[in-house]
Every structure is written in C-alpha cells, then in structure tokens.
Amino acid sequence: MTAPTDDHSLKASPYRAIFLAHSEPMWFYDRTTSAVIDVNDAALAFYAMTRDGFLRTPAGDLLTTHAARRADGRIFYADSHECDLGGGRALVLVALHDVTALRAAESALARAEEEQRRQTAEFEERVRERTVQLQAAISELEAFSYSVSHDLRAPLRSIAGFSQALIEDAGPSLSADARDDIARIIAAAGRMDHLINDLLTLSMVTRAEMRRESVDVSELANRIVAELADLSPTRPVSTTVASGMVAHGDPRLVRVALENLLTNAWKFTSRRERACIEVGQRDDSDSTGTVYFVRDNGVGFDPAFADKLFGPFQRLHDAADFPGTGIGLATVRRIVLRHGGRVWAESRPGQGACFYFTLQ
Amino acid sequence: MYQILLVEDNADDVELTLRAFRKSDLVNTVTVVRDGVEALDYLLATGGHAGRDGEDLPDLVLLDIKLPRVDGLQVLERLRANPRTKLLPIVVLTSSIEPKDLQTCYALGANSYVRKPIDFQQFSKALQQIGSYWLETNQAPPAPA
Asked: Quick one: which of A28, A53, A56, A58 has its CA closest to A40?
C-alpha cells in the first residue's frame, strides 16, 4: 500500500521526529511547486532562519546547483538526494552533506595535475633545447676532430718529410751533431703523430655508434698478442689467454680496449727477463657479471695513484723509460663506461699490474 | 712509361710526393693540379683544359679529399658519373682516417684509400707501393669506347 503523501500525513509520520532531530540540515520540497514542505532544526540553524521564513522561501533559492551559503557567509558544498515518496508527488529530500573538504581536495588534485603537466612540458622543452645544444656540440667535435685528423697532420708531414730530405740531400756535409738534431726533429714529429692518432681514437670511441654483439674475447686477445709479438719478435713474452671468453659488446670498441691494455702490459714488462702476460676472466657472484682481466708482471704502479691512472694525459712513468701519450687508459675507461661497465686496476710497484673490466 | 695525375693543394705534400716518385723509376710524368675544379677540367678536357686531348687520360689519379673549391669527394662522384672516367683507377691519398670519409670514398667508387704517413720513409714506401701495384701489377681497365 502507498503511504499518504499529503502535507498533513507527512507531518504526522512517526519518522518525523527522526527527521527533525537529525544533525544534518534537511528539508523537502515539492518539485512541481518548489514549495518547501518541511525542514529540520539543523537546517534552520544552518541558514539562521525561522521556520516560517524557511517555508516561505522557494526551494531554488536555498540551494544553487551544489552549493549553499551558510548564515556565516561561507560556501558550503552539498549533495542533495531526490527521493520519490510515491503518492503521485515528486518530492525532493535535500540533505546537506558537507563535501567542502572533498571539493578542496579535488581542486588541489586538479591544480597539482596541471602543475605536473606544465612541468612535464617545461622538462620536455628543456630536453629539446639540450638535445639541440648537444647535437651542435657533437658536430663541433666532429669538425674539430676532422680538422685535427687532417689539418694538424699536414704540417707535421712537412716537418718530418723535409727533415728527412735534408739528411738525404745534405747528409754527407752535415756534422754528426746536426744529423742527430734532425733525427730528433723527425722523432718528435712521430711522437706528435702518435698523440694525434690517440686523441682521434679517444674521440672516436666517444662518438662511435654502439653495436652490441657477441665478441670472442679469447680470439681477439690472441690476435692482438700475435700482432704485438710480430712488432717485437726478439722479445720473449709468455702469454696466456683463457679460452672460451665471450662478451656482449661492440666488437670494434672491445678491440680498442683490449689493444690498449695489452699494449700497456707489453710495454711495462719490457724490463723483465721473463715477461708474463695473462688474459682471463672470473665470474663475480655479486651481480657484476663477468670480470675480464689483463695481468702482467711488469713494473707496476704506486696504488696511491690508481685513481689518476684513467684520466687523459696522466702518466705515472718517465716517458724516456716507457714512451706513451697517456691517452690509452682514458680510452679504455670511455669504452667500458659506454658499455655500462667498470674498470679498475691493482698493483704494487715492481710487482706487476692487473687491470679488470666489466662490460655491463 | 706511366702518367700520374696528382690532385693536391698542399705545396709541401706535392713536393714530398714528387720527391718520393723521383726515387722510383716507375713514373715519368706526374701532372699536378691544385684543386677539384682543375682536376675535373683536366680529366674531362673542359674549362682551362678545354684544348687538351680528352682521350689522353693518366694511368692513375692520386686524389686528396680536402681541396679548395670542389672537394675530392665531389671530384670522385663526378668522375664516376662520366663514362670516360668511370673506370679510371683512383687512389684516395689523404690525411683523414675518419670512418665517414672511408665509407664515402669507397661508396663513390674509389679504387683504394691510403692515409699519408707522417714519416717520410713510410710515405715514400707507400707511394712506391701504390705506383708499383696500380701501374705494374694491376691490369688497367680497357680504354673507354
């Protein structure tokens, strides 16, 4: 059966007491006429209105879409609920429920999202700018290294070439001292040529595109050792290369790194009667993966300088004893870093050195 | 005897190259041109060399890359596009070991790529080897039809 819904029956309902005493402001009105039918004490207090005044106020004035203005002037965000009480009347029950905090949280969230969008856009813009700058720097570096490779070598060839021509043309009439002077000029030009070549390699390993593939480290090491042995056939060097070493890296760059390490080992064992060089690997259980090493029994270095070793132009030995440009280990370090690996060295003076590296 | 065209803008390098060839008894004529435009004019008998007999090609071209006006790479490209010089033996002789230059020269049809050594004895040896190989060992391409 349908409950009677005329105003009197509604006000006589036993539920009215609950309605009147409820702590949330509530009223209900007839949607057709907008006339407020009943209101509870909480609503009267909320608006600071008398019951008669409230009942005379059109429902639409009490509540804009989702907000009500309280007696103290504060905007109060509210939810209203429509409920069909039946009996042919469309009655709307309004229960003010404060969602101000929720609204505030929502708009704070929206602001935060907007801020994040702005920051992301700003960050992307900055990345774009940096990329352009970086590309400019790279092409500048390319132009520079091209110029070094081409223009700086040309005068060097003139210096070395015409010095040699001088010896050939005027040799017999020159004193031994003069010939020695000219030989020094030629040797210096040769050293500068090495320096330029090493710098070019260093710049190449920085710029070169990385192509990772399976690299047979054992074969590579054996080949480099054979090349070194060809260059100084009179030196007895005992070399051991572990078999089956395979790495995942750029073949060209890995070769340059191994070449530098082995050439160093070869050079710094030159004073040893029995030079020994070993290339091997060990698996580190602490997640670093395979560690490759090149060990020699050469002159070694003072471990106090171990961190200086990999900086460009750092030399720990007299150039007269062990000639070099000081760029080789810097090149090794760049190659290893480009592979996401690590390189380090252990040594004691006079007791050989061991260079370790990983490739990921 | 053989003829070589040397395309080189650096006077010192020209002198050193001629000096190296003088020591070998392979070559009797080395013609020198100083930039890319002159090289093309000489080989294609155009411009300042329009009066030259276009059939008279050198046996070998030694080509520098970095040249004034038209660079060696463009010279190479133009010579390979022309039927008369399409097969002409061209050795790139340069200071550069930029991988990009190597790649481009071979892609454009250079027969060989040699980096000029700094040391004069090595430089002489390289030139003698180039001369000996390209003029004596190698079978020259047939004359253009």
From this structure: A28
Three-point CA angle B93, B96, B98, nearest 5°: 130
Secondary structure, 3-state, B1-69 = CEEEEEECCCHHHHHHHHHHHHHCCCEEEEEEECCHHHHHHHHHCCHHHCCCCCCCCCCEEEECCCCCC
Chain A residues in contact with B65 by the CB 8 A cut-off are 150
- Under the banding of pLDDT at 50, 70 and 90, the label for residue A1 is very low
Mutation for testing the B interface, residue in A157, A168, A186, A191 having most B CBs under 10 Å:
A157
Asked if the C-beta of B14 comes within 8 angstroms of chain A's C-beta atoms, the answer is no
Is the ipTM here above 0.85? no
Cβ atoms of residues B33 and B6 within 8 Å: yes
Residue A248 and residue A215 in contact, taking contact as beta carbons nearer than 8 Å:
yes
Is residue A158 less than 8 Å (CB to CB) from chain B? yes
Dmax (CA) of chain B = 42
Q: Do A160 and B119 touch (CB under 8 A)?
A: yes
Residue A305: C-alpha distances to residues A21, A293, A345, B44, B100 (Å): 85, 19, 10, 62, 38
Chain A residues near residue B9 by CB distance under 8 angstroms: none
Across the range A20-25, mean pLDDT stands at: 88
Beta bridge partners of B91: B62, B112
Alpha-carbon distances, residue A350 vs A215, A299, A300 (angstroms): 33, 4, 5
User: SS3 for A356?
Assistant: strand
Q: Report the pLDDT value the prediction gives residue A127, as an integer from 0 to 100.
A: 93
For an interface test with B, which of A149, A167, A198, A210 has the most B Cβ atoms less than 10 Å from its Cβ? A149
Residue A3: pLDDT band (50, 70, 90) is: low
Average pLDDT score over chain A: 84
Find the CB nearest A161 among B66, B99, B120. B120
Q: Which residues of A touch B120 (CB under 8 A)?
A: 157, 160-161, 163-165, 186
Token pair belonging to A59: 């429902």
> Which string of DSSP letters, residue by residue, matches A119-140?
HHHHHHHHHHHHHHHHHHHHHH
Q: What percent of chain A has pLDDT over 90?
A: 26
